[in-house]
Amino acid sequence: MERMAVSRRTFLRLCAVAGLAPGPADGADAPKTGGTLRVGFYIEAATMDPHLSGSKVDRQIYHNIYEPLVTLDTKLGIRPGLAESWQQPDSRTLIFNLRQGVKFHDGTDFNAEAARFNFNRMKTEPKSVRKGEVANIESVDVVDPHTIRINLKKPDAALLATLTDRAGMMISPKVVQDRGAELQRNAKGAGTGPFEFVEWIRDDHLLIKRNENYWNKQGGPYLDRVRYRPIPDDTVKLQSLQAGEIDVMDYVQPRDVAAVKADRNVVVVDVPSLADFAYQLNHMRPPFNVKALRQAVAYGLDLEQIVRGVWLNVGVPANGPVPPTSWAYDRTIPPIKRDLARAKAKLAEGGQPSGFAFTLTTNNIPINIQESEVIQAQLREAGITMKIKLVDSATLLSDGNSRNFDMISYQWSGRPDPDGNTYQFFKTTPGTSLNWSGISNPQIDTLLDRTREVANQAERKRLFGELTKILQEELPMIFIIHPVEPKAFSPRVQGYEPIPDGMMRFKNVWLR
Amino acid sequence: MGRLVLHRVAAIVPVLLLVTAGVFALLHLTPGDPIDAMMAESVDAEAKASLRQELGLDRPIHVQYATWMGRLLRGDLGHSIRNGEPVIENVTRRIRPSLELASLAMAVSLLVAFPVGIVSAIRRNTALDRAATSFALFGICMPNFLLALLLIFLFGVTLRWLPISGYTDPVEEPVAGLRSLVLPAVTLGLALAAVITRTLRSSMLEALAEDYVRTARAKGLSEWRVIRGHVLKNALIPVVTVLGLQLGTLIGGAVITEYVFALPGVGRLVVDAVFARDYPLVQGVILLIALGFILSNLLVDLLYGWIDPRIRYR
Amino acid sequence: MAGSIPGSDIAERAPAIARRAAPAPAPEQRWVVLRRAARTRLAPFGAAVLLAAVLVALGAPLLAPYDPLEQNLGQALARPGRAHLLGTDNVGRDVMSRVIWGTRVSLVAGFGSVAIAAVVGSLLGVLAGYAGGRADGLVMRAMDAVLSFPPLVLALALGAVLGAGLGGVLIALGVVYTPTFARLMRGQVLAIALREYVDAARALGAPGWRIAWHHVLPNAAPPIVVQASLSVAFAILAEASLSFLGLGIQPPGASWGSMINAGRGYLQQAPWIVFGPGAALFVTVVGLNFVGDAIRDALDPRLRG
Description:
The structure holds three protein chains of three kinds. Chain A is built from 15 helices and 20 strands.
């Protein structure tokens, strides 16, 4: 069986040429209009209201029917979206010049009033899940019908990147006012995107159709409709694609990647992601309240073996929370290398020269189980006994939030700005938070705050590099892999441009 | 007879009470919380707290149970936490695929079980019987998810004759709908066929051993007349019993089949709801499934008692 | 689900309902029953399978060619061959060794859960049968309640509460099967307590527990045994189903069910990961069914003579 090896260099190169779309080598085909694209996701969307959404799958659909103020390009650069341009006269003010002539699908105009309405809703709507993301926004002023000024409480260099996703998406105020809670199930007329919401038959499919009045006349949309179907079982999903029942699959399991790449009925696109998969260590109780023991575990792990044997090289070993796709990635910092001698030394330093035992809590899915078994075997060689506790996701969240774990698996889907992969996990936070480890380190706190204050990207990169080094020392988390998220398509699908946030945008996609 | 009915119907209430109390207790003992599950990537404690308060999840357990029971008595099963829709709507939306799957599976099983069961009883201990019994055994002992995967692999991927996942509404598109149900119906139906074959076989053997059969044979009636006239009718009683009971369990019990074939049925609904800790949905659906099961049991028991007056149990 | 097939135990009960009016065999006939069971065609095969399974389970350390936990990532997904009779799995572990060791887990899961159910259920059934009245009503309503639960969901919920692992599975399946035994035992108690010799014993002044021990239990035993042997087969299948939905034995230990589940994604590339344990599962379940069938057939008064 052929194994595709993705070295770090290849990974980075993949990021660079991520703009390559599947298609004929001559590229002489002109896009055709028409057809229904059938997409298979592992789970159904939860809600059609971006302000109330907490799930990753929702975003996939949002990026086709709603539009944010700014968007990402293939290199994670920030590009104009509904905002044509922006300025920052000082570190606490952000001015957006909004695009003119854009209408929501219900016919109402998109303008500064609408934008302000959206920001206010995010901040004040009781069930809003975006509150944390826009916490730094003090107020939004309408300067003129197509200009808004956002006043920040503190400088926030990461805000722009946050506005490329749900926090920046604009919903029609009229739809919100007319429809209220029903917006969660019915988003007709609510967005400005290349596609419009048609219907959502729960547990069956969600349908969107081409927006004939889309403001951007360059390129697509070409497809008549896109139909999303939830298929929870990976094997069935893959077989559906191979059998031609769906055209697009959001994720190919590492174990299937080699076989799928060999299948000529299917085209695989490797999309390097923003994600980091790690294990959080509980600093608040034994054994991992002792730094040396944490380090013993880190030295006992062989990341290369895990990435090679479990993930089949669909990804690269991680050196920290910042993924290689990010401009902030510091390739001079290597991932922690296995060193059994140092592990044993750390054991002694931590007061457990003959080893110790702990429990790993992880999710009940095949790849997690496999990874934990490999880790168990690796740690055994270092003299550390690890028990495995399998739980379902709700229990995992509960254990994590209540800090009822020694070492717990955590898979973060990733955010375009490195702040999204770091701040909430490592900043000292009293009470319940995503900082499951409970780490409270003043050096880290200072660094995290600095990365938000500083606007200069090169400087921020340096700061994140420092952060990564400290994280390797303090180990609130042990990072394992930055996965590649392979997406699979029928050969009929043309024009797909993969963006590292993993979101599938179908604006310029067409069917042969 | 009337007293029996009344007695049995009255007994339903305490059973349902026990079921609902049991579900409630189990759910709230399970670690995990629906709000956390829904808003996994957010740490907005305020939003979560206000949602919890709105849904009454912050009140003590017995208060929550009492509130739920109160609503129930008014006919309100509550709303799903995940999608905000009434529980009743969630169920009615999912019940049809489950019912269609169940009836199709039954049809498949009867089509297979009848000839096999009857023949194996008549030709007892011959090669035919042994083949039939082996088949029955195979059906019972085969894990249904394994069977499902094999069928998918064979008919879906290799031969590409049938769709391997998803559900097309047979009411809207009869042909495509039926095709989407064939593989799951066969998976369930084969296992069911095995059970019915055995039941039919053993009940036929019993009936064949009856005195009146000997009498009929002695009178010179042909074997076929004997069977058709006397044996079959009596042998069918337990089979009907089994079928009735199966229908009750099939709705909520086809979980694995629904999972593997991605069918939007009731079984998958409740398991997904358990994973998401969607308390009202789990409670409502289990109550309905339990009610359905109890009613079908009751019906079968009463039917049985009515048909065969010899069997009257306390 | 008294098995992977919903209500299949009820299928067995249906003719038994008719037989409730018929008397259970008297104690001296027990040996006759066993001899008859042994004569049934397939019983020897079933017994052989059962014996083999138990021997394999007990002798696992000696029989398994490799350490079932030993990973060898370089040898992952190797085809069956001389080095590995059933090939290797996705982390290079020998499938044959894991199947052998898995016998222990599956048998413990099967016998353990049925034992729990049989003991608890029988106690409840005796209680209900003897006490009568309100206690009887309460117990039977509780049993009905458990039976009305979709079994897989019940097991899932129980497992989530109890925590995954063999203990959780045993208790969860034990709870699911208890009502069957409770009902059975209660029926037996009611039928036997009507018997003349019990009346005679009572008239002679024998205390209740004595009657229970000497008369009721020995006569109630055969149907319980039959039910137990059939249930074990289904319990083993049920554990496999639970693994499929994410409950069950903790890694790296493996039961056949969790092996099939883990190998599911590799069905096309490496089907031996599924078929090794799958075949073991199937054969064991078939064997147990034969044994149960043989005993049941032999007990049937109508088929005698």
